Automatic annotation (TrEMBL):
Keyword Membrane annotated: yes
GO CC annotation terms, alphabetical: mitochondrial outer membrane; pore complex
Protein name, entry field: VOLTAGE-DEPENDENT ANION-SELECTIVE CHANNEL
Coiled coil: none
CDD domains hit by this protein: Porin3_VDAC
Keywords: Ion transport, Membrane, Porin, Transmembrane, Transmembrane beta strand, Transport
Entry GO MF terms: porin activity; voltage-gated monoatomic anion channel activity
Pfam families named in the record: Porin_3
Keyword field contains Ribonucleoprotein: no
Length: 276
């Protein structure tokens, strides 16, 4: 692939991952294994409230092709087939979920030194089409996204964004929800290895005059333990502790508290991921 600008879906992703990833109030257990034949198997069990769900996923990679299939306790089968460089500088992704045959989707990504494009088409009788494009360099990128409903003959969404990437920082701004929301985010890395980072994100919704501001960060306690925390202007406080119990086996404990609620009882989440 080229060393050009990021895909539109990646604009703002660094701040989003830092402020949302691993924060949960569910109990989760995951085990991954790799076979000599190149097949990766992952079993996951999640308990949310009084409901327990689980799934088994298999990932197989052969040259430029990746096949991913997942079976869950709801009798659903999800399959994703990815071809890299099937055509020069492209990635093709085909996905479908059974028994919902209308969930099929075909996406083609194209990468160039000065631009990137994606086209996604729903594989059903009334397909919707999503198109994104970014232009620029790995340092600065301008992008836009549009969705079109072929049945209604109208645009379902249009979004625009810009991102600026530097060695020690990342900033982005996205105008979304058909122009109704503006989101700006900033990430700053505190060390050369980018293990310690702080982030801030502000979202303005024009139709309701509502502002949401979130700050957070990720900091290593030692080479085995990482602490994450975030707080927004609505009083939602979240914290995450991740500890590598044994090599490639991570224990994650997270908690959320609404400091403005009458009941300030924290909600806890537990995730255990075991990898070979």
């Amino acid at each position: 692939m080229s060393k050009g600008p990021v895909l539109f879906a990646d604009i703002g992703k660094k701040a989003k991952d830092l402020l949302t990833k691993d924060y949960n109030s569910d109990q989760k257990f995951s085990v991954s294994t790799n076979s000599d034949a190149g097949v990766a198997l992952t079993s996951t069990a999640v308990k949310k409230g009084g409901l327990s769900t689980g799934d088994v996923a298999a990932l197989y990679m052969y040259k430029n092709t990746t096949f991913d299939v997942k079976f869950d306790t709801g009798s659903n089968i999800s399959t994703t087939l990815t071809f890299t460089d099937f055509l020069p500088s492209t990635k093709t992704i085909a996905s479908i979920k059974f028994p919902d045959y209308n969930s099929g989707k075909l996406e083609v990504q194209y990468f160039h030194d000065r631009a990137s494009f994606t086209t996604a088409v729903a594989l059903n009788q009334s397909p919707s089409i999503d198109v994104t494009a970014t232009i620029g360099t790995p340092t600065i990128a301008f992008g836009a996204e549009a969705g079109y409903d072929t049945t209604l003959g109208s645009l379902t969404k249009y979004t625009a964004g810009i991102s600026v990437t530097k060695p020690d920082s990342y900033a982005s701004m996205i105008l979304g929800d058909k122009g109704d929301s503006l989101q700006a985010s900033y990430v700053h890395h505190l060390d050369l290895l980018k293990k310690s980072s702080v982030a801030g994100e502000i979202t303005r919704r024009f139709s309701t005059n509502e502002n949401t501001f979130t700050i957070g960060g990720s900091f290593p306690v030692d080479h085995l333990t990482v602490v994450k925390a975030k707080l927004n202007n609505h009083g939602k406080l979240g914290a995450v502790v991740q500890h590598e119990v044994i090599p490639k086996s991570v224990l994650t404990i997270s908690s959320e508290v609404d400091t403005k609620a009458l009941d300030k009882s924290p909600r806890f989440g537990l995730a255990i991921a075991l990898k070979p």
